[in-house]
Amino acid sequence: MPDGRDWNGLLDDTSNIGDGLLEIDNCSLFTKNLLNRRPGFDLPITLANAPLAMEELAGNIITVESGGAIRSYVQTSGAATALQAGYTTTNLAKPVSAFSRIYLANVAQAVKVIDTSNVIRDAGIVAPTTAPTLNTSAGLVTLGTHLVRYRYVDATRNRLSNPTPPATITIVSTNSILVTVAASVDPYVTGINIEVTPSGASTFYIASTAANASASVNISLTDALLVLKVPSSVNGDFGHAPPPQYRLMCENRQRMWMMDPTSGLLAWSQPGFPESFDTTTNARVITMPGGDVATAIFGFYSDLYIVGQRSMMRLVYSTDPAGSMLLPVLGSMGCYSDKAFTKTSTGEVFGWGRDGMWRLNTMQPVKISKHVTDHIADAVDPTAAYTALRFVCYDPIQQTVMFFFVKTGETQCRGAFAFDVDPVGPNAEWKMFFFRQSFACACYNSSSTDRQRIALGDNNAYIWRYGTRDNDGGKGSALSVTSATTTVINGTNAAVVGMMAYRPVTGEENLIAAATSGSITVSAFATAPAAGELIYCGSIRERWLTQWNTGNSASGKKRPSYLELIVHPQAATSGVFTVRFYLDFATSPSSVTSGSSDTWPNGISIVNGTDIRVDAGVAAVDGYIAVPMFADFQRAVAAEVIADYPATGLRFYDFKWGYTNRTQQVPVVGE
């Protein structure tokens, strides 16, 4: 049994459960010293197309889908609102949540903004193109020469346009100024600010705000009254052009920041006006170290971080970014893309670049993947096209950061390394999750009745809320086959469309296209399942693989004869798991047989030639199970354990290599 210390999962150099683990899949280590099933998925939201990126906004999930459609989905019901079609997905930036809005950018179209009303629009306001026409009428304007201009205003969203060039008028008698303005075609403009200078001065004041309509506005103010109005410089006379068409963007210190990775040009908005830019004066070129190219930008406390694939820079400023310092951040930390970093509820930033995974909770990032470097190399496909698919997200239920990747030999993200953010230092836990469906992006989902969750968007056009079930799509989703073809399997089940059907007999995983209480329709299996066969509908089995055991030494003769396991007593009443043995550093399980005089312990039997099936309800009287293994082997042995049933997973406390069984000494003969 565990000795009370934390089990550190994949950190085998500090592991203290059993004799160490080589690999674990779909096991949650959130409960200390216990191999638990990873959380599953709630019923999905059905999308029109596979999502490429998504973000949460006021109870809705905003998606950019393959084909370029932008849609909003209600988290609780899945009801969809089409916002825009044809948004270019080439060089698409990760959606950014800022100022209670969602911002999206690509290099081909105007930056888009989605407000809480789920209405999409272009960011910023285009300045008036028609200068004011000035006339006089009876009034109180102070004698002398005045400058007059106007600009568009959206008071609801705190947006301004740049003003028109000023027009000049000289008042020679007691008159007012009649200003003719042109309306904006922007439907969200709420008014037009008329700005006037005192006689002979250069400072503009907001003399009047008119409705957004082409009309003549009468200004009749003495200079003494005019200077009591709000100066236009309070909000910045200029610098209110719409955002540039740059790909990378983020919010920091009440400004929106945008960057063009190709040119290295970084631009920032007016403070408090995230849609107002001046790329002539409020911009600078950023040169990354060693010819690296920026892949992401984010704010961390008071600084802006600019990240490449293998480097990081920190922009430090007090009030005006134009006077900022650009400092290199040591450590070669980077991001594969703007989807390869995430912020957590603890205020930290986690990312994944060419030098590994890192954690930023002070000014200096720290590499966290040192202990799992070999596991990453073994599991992750290094192909350049697949590195761009990697993404990072934060699960607030287990407080883990999940690093999604394409498994070796595959083409989409179905694997995830999960890092526990709670412990800081060498006791931090790592897990490895393998999913049946493939995922492309993630965002928060705050409409759950109990707490915030993470939502994952898959390549089959579904969004799944994570951490609400024991398996993927609902409890009890195994289907016992009564009759079947290769595509239609009949039997009582609780399957959901969008789940993946897993067939343990052949290892096939196929999408469920239709489901009723009595059957499911799937993409074709190689053969028709047999009556009585068990098909898992979305269920993910937990699996772990031990380190290699060499007995006394690689040349010694003392070999363990049993794999001893401790299961939770409640789980011992029911449940089945499979054990496989690997010999002499082989990558395939070895076949097992038994001699004519061998007697198997209760609940343990051989199936499929390589699998030892264990009925935990029969074999575990007190939670202890000893599985016989090979009588002899040449160099080393490793064991693999897979929890087949129930769907909630068995709860394993500990394992060890046993040299003397407490009950029987019946080795398996494998020649």
Please outline the helices and strands.
Layout: E1 21-25, E2 27-28, E3 36-37, E4 45-46, E5 51-57, E6 60-65, E7 70-74, E8 80-84, E9 96-98, E10 101-104, E11 112-114, E12 120-122, E13 133-141, E14 144-154, E15 159-160, E16 167-171, E17 175-181, E18 191-196, E19 205-210, E20 215-219, H1 223-226, E21 248-252, E22 255-260, E23 265-270, E24 273-277, E25 283-285, E26 294-300, E27 303-308, E28 312-316, E29 325-328, E30 341-343, E31 349-353, E32 356-360, E33 366-367, H2 373-379, H3 384-387, E34 391-395, E35 400-406, E36 413-420, E37 430-445, E38 453-458, E39 462-465, E40 478-480, E41 483-484, E42 488-490, E43 500-503, E44 508-515, E45 519-522, E46 534-537, E47 543-546, E48 562-567, E49 576-583, E50 604-607, E51 611-615, H4 616-619, E52 624-628, E53 637-645, E54 652-658
Antiparallel strand pairs: 1-47, 2-3, 4-39, 5-6, 6-7, 7-8, 9-10, 10-11, 11-12, 13-17, 14-15, 14-16, 14-18, 17-20, 18-19, 21-22, 22-23, 23-24, 23-25, 26-27, 27-28, 28-29, 30-31, 31-32, 32-33, 34-35, 35-36, 36-37, 37-38, 38-39, 40-46, 41-42, 42-45, 43-44, 43-46, 44-45, 47-53, 48-52, 48-54, 49-51, ...
What would a concise description of this structure say?
The chain is mainly beta. The chain is built from 4 helices and 54 strands.
| Terminus-to-terminus distance | 32 Å
What is the count of β-strands?
54
What is the count of helical runs? 4
How would a textbook summarize the main sheet?
A: 7 strands, antiparallel
Main sheet strand line-up: 4-39-38-37-36-35-34
- Radius of gyration of CA atoms, rounded to a whole number: 32 Å
Q: Which outline best applies?
A: elongated
Helix-strand category: mainly beta
**Averaged pLDDT, please?**
87
Strand percent estimate: 35-45%
Helix content: under 10%
Low-confidence stretches: 1-17, 661-671
